[in-house]
Design goal:
The protein has about 70 residues and is mainly alpha-helical. It contains two helices and no strands.
């Protein structure tokens, strides 16, 4: 019984994906600007994350090897 339900769901998803019509919806300029802003923000977040992953270990290595403590 469960296999039949899964097959019916799969067939209906395939039909809805391949035989769907256009929605004819209007997306105004406000929604477009928000979408572009979110995409840019995601790229900035990924860039800052990658810089943090690369920069801080290199900074610790640099200070470990090149900054000697004052010997008294």
């Amino acid at each position: 019984m469960k296999k039949n339900v899964n097959n019916i769901i799969l067939i209906s998803l395939v039909f809805s994906l391949f035989f769907s019509n256009n929605a004819h919806a209007y997306l105004g300029p406000g929604l477009g600007l928000i979408g572009i802003g979110i995409i840019i923000l995601i790229f900035i977040i990924i860039l800052v994350y990658l810089i943090a992953i690369i920069y801080y270990p290199l900074k610790k290595i640099y200070y470990k090897f090149f900054h000697k403590k004052d010997e008294k």
